[in-house]
Amino acid sequence: MVERLRGNAPIVVVVATAVVVFGLSLLLVGGFATSGGIRNIAIGTLVLGIVGAGQTLVIIGGGIDLSVPWVMTGAGLILPLVLGEHDQGTLVWAIPLVLCMAALVGVVNGLGVTMLGAPPIIMTLAMNGMLSGAVAIYVSSSKPHEAPPLLRDAVFGDVAGIPAWALMMLVVVVAISALLSLTTYGRRLYAVGTSSVVSEYSGIRSARVTVASYALCSVCAGLAGMVLLGYVETGYFGMGDPYQFASIACVLVGGASVLGGSGHYLGTIAAAFLLTTVTAVLTIWGVGAGIQAIFYGATILGSAWLLGSGAFAKRSGSLLVSRLRKAGVA
Amino acid sequence: MSELASTVRASGASWLGRVRSAEADDVVPVVLPFVLLAGLIVWLAFLLPTSLQSGQLVLTLDQSTVLILLAAGQVFVLLTGGIDLSVAGVLAVANGICATHMHGQGSAISIALAIVLLGWVPGAINGAIIVFSGIKPIIVTLATWFIWSGVALVILPVAGGAIPLSVGNLWTGSFLGLANVVWFALILAVALLWIGRSGLVLRLRAIGSHPLGAFHSGVPIRRNVVIAYALASWFAALGGLVLSAQSLSGDPGVGNSYLLPSIAAAVIGGTRLNGGVGAPFGALVGALVLGYVTQVTLATGLAANWSLVFASLILVLGVSIPALVHAVGRRLAMRRA
Fold it and tell me: pTM of the entire structure?
């Protein structure tokens, strides 16, 4: 039990920090506590939380996915194209179609990592490059980029008095947490992320687990792209770009190790809430994009330092070589 | 241990000797980029005979210079088994400083001097954080990429600024009948060849292929890793200076478009991502390969966006072919034994 608690200490800290920062912002920051402002933070957290969900799976499995921005942008730009002049009702098959395209991207990522042996950073960075080229070729500027009204309603509307964003968030949190904690797939993912060799010898087909994690990540990114489209109302090139860093930042701040095998979605969603709140406060204070980027960088560095060698780590001797090996210098 | 031995063997003696004595998985990455480059040049010459004129060659070199610098810097870090994502930010900061602070001849010279003298500092910070904190290079440089991109935005919030024409003339001018671009590339090539044979690169290869072995052989690991990151950032800062002379303006987002190509050029040039194998000179060839990919794409009448698709494909193949050859070779060796 104590072991369990110790492993989750970072998550508890992140959740507590997020709640405290949000509470302080409500009380102390003028112009923060408006209904529109709160809704923007909620939807911002939702979009970041959905991308972060996929990124959490991939990072727990020992990989990293840098191709999320153009999966998001692609989904946001291609959905209006697929819909074209058709009836709104076509969304019923248009959304699954776009998600299938996203899943295909993820499968290619996963196969590149497992079959070709390409390092995840390179495979997904290259995929991002390929997608940005391909989407720009496929989507010419003359075609419609407006979000279908139904999609806008799905993001801003409500069901029986409960806002739609809250329902979507609930579904995502429950689904991903259950996937990680209650299913065999979740267990296998942690095992593969801890050591793909050991998991292979333990009878897990680690390649399949890895490919599935990349496919799920791309599906999440595609979904997030569509929610983002409904939120910003008009798709544009590069709409997903900020989420490349932000999704990784919220997974790492949420307590997952970039080496794989640890972390949980509850940490990620709390970190997404924290980062969105802080970004909103900085924007209210008139802090420019530059300072915000510096803040993001410092946050990543700070949390990596805390998790890696500070308060939460078991001190297992400070041999130079073990340190270096952990650093990957080795 | 055998990896270290083969690395030391592969990096000793002459370049030709290195090719002869190397094993299959060492030969492929060394020869492949040259074959690729030659093939692309011939292909382009068929599509566009004018591409062999000296003016066109100089133009290609001109367009590839920034990438050559970034990729060469990236090689030092990749050799240690690390990666430097922050070069994109350092490039943007150097570009932003040039665009906002170069007003005339005097200030241009002092800014250029300052960049050349201090360009290594951001990398030294990266290296110091990595060796003393134990955080993975990708996380440290991801964070410093954010931070330097932010600094670039603070220095120059939107694309613009003006750099004196005299700086640009220095870049486009010529000396002794040869374009300055060519002189720069020649000096760079000689420098990269020289540094590739130096003890530093040998030590970085040793660290990347077997850190424990390197440690027991008396290689000062921390110092050399810090030097590798410092060099990567120095080359990126130099790239920012060259970029400023080419574009005569600044753009805070310029670095990001160079990040993927900088890693791609290094990898295509034969540097292995998990460390231990590679040479800075290979990055020059790799960068030229990417430059010619763009030109061939345009010459075949495809949209410019296709070149990005092809460059990414080449990157994935460039990473996976040596690994596949290595795996196949190992399997064959096991069967023989």
Answer: 0.80
